């Protein structure tokens, strides 16, 4: 985040950034006259989809690496809609007996303010899907895992709830379920005694859909394959960069930000 | 069958023993609770594998498939736990009450209770199909709240939830909402 501050560009540069981002978002260069919300959906339907469904019997491969680029300047609400979409998709945040501090939190909005200049911005923070995830290094059972396509997730079937991974994660992205639950979302099993976190909506990706949060903020978020040079996200990060939070840790995160 | 006992055939003891055993087994059989298959039969003629095979080996299929799915990302539906529940379990009983795994009449519990099998799967996995696309968890139909409602407790349940209940109660699970 601090290196984001150093990069705060000049006003006209910001505009250039946004134009680039729009071009990347829509996959089209001729968009100046169109209303943003409208083109986004149409254009992305016309161009190649960001996620194509694998045949169900095929395993995920390292040919792809999933990533997400979030332009905080275009979010408008600092990511609140993304958080709401995630809660709805995975059913967290309403655990009946947990105190507010104990409620699981797969993604949260974080407000950052520069003490001197008072410049501030808000960004959604979730699992950053590191290439070298510290949570995987420390897990004693192998439950904290990185899938071939770069998705970092908990294999809850072998999670013993020790919570080492929660402590190892520099982004505070993981939560622990403290109590028995019923009526979970069928596609997102959650249960007492295990750690959980953003899994990039692995159930959606595997069936050719983008994560719920990306769907909720199409004007600001590009999801896709970082290994494919022709994907919208690759073109966007190539043109605009994409800040990693805590880049100093050299984790090579899959989630990148603009305008932080 | 019993009549024959008074008229033993020449081959004697062995057949008598067999007959006695058969009678005994038949008597035992009557006491074994049968899993409720009506819900699934309304949707399909047969299970995802031959019935006898499923009785003996469903756990193998499930355990293999779960690792393939979580670790490798294989998403075939044949041995998927979500699909077992979708096909075999109706979200509510005829009287509108929620069915959960700890209840003896849940499809998966029907044999397990009798055989003394303990599984933890439904601590995480939904034990019934999703009733509606309610954004809030737990939705008003979940066991705790529903029972509060039934006992006159203070939870308010919206009209649409009630409609979902009565719609579900009458017959099959056709109304289930799949994401």
How would you characterize the overall build of this protein?
The complex is a heterodimer of chains A (260) and B (179). Chain A is 29% helix and 15% strand. Chain A has helices spanning 2-6, 11-26, 36-46, 72-75, 80-90, 134-138, 164-168, 202-205, 212-216, 232-240; strands spanning 66-71, 107-113, 120-126, 144-146, 152-154, 175-176, 195-196, 221-225, 255-258. In chain A, the strands form 4 sheets. In chain A, strands 8-1-9 form a 3-stranded mixed sheet. In chain A, strands 2-3 form a two-stranded antiparallel sheet. In chain A, strands 4-5 form a two-stranded antiparallel ribbon. In chain A, helix 2 (11-26) runs antiparallel to helix 10 (232-240). Chain A is globular, with a radius of gyration of 18 Å. Chain B has 2 domains: 34-129, no CATH class; 131-179, no CATH class. Chain B has helices spanning 13-31, 38-41, 51-72, 81-88, 107-115, 121-124, 143-150, 159-169. At the A-B interface, loops of A face helix 3 and helix 4 of B.
**Number of separate strands of chain B:** 0
How many individual helices of chain B? 8
DSSP strand (E) fraction of chain A?
Answer: 15-25%
Identify low-pLDDT runs of chain A: 1-11, 28-46
Topology overview:
The complex is a heterodimer of chains A (260) and B (179).
Chain A: H1 2-6, H2 11-26, H3 36-46, E1 66-71, H4 72-75, H5 80-90, E2 107-113, E3 120-126, H6 134-138, E4 144-146, E5 152-154, H7 164-168, E6 175-176, E7 195-196, H8 202-205, H9 212-216, E8 221-225, H10 232-240, E9 255-258
Helix pairs in contact in A: 2-10
Chain B: H1 13-31, H2 38-41, H3 51-72, H4 81-88, H5 107-115, H6 121-124, H7 143-150, H8 159-169
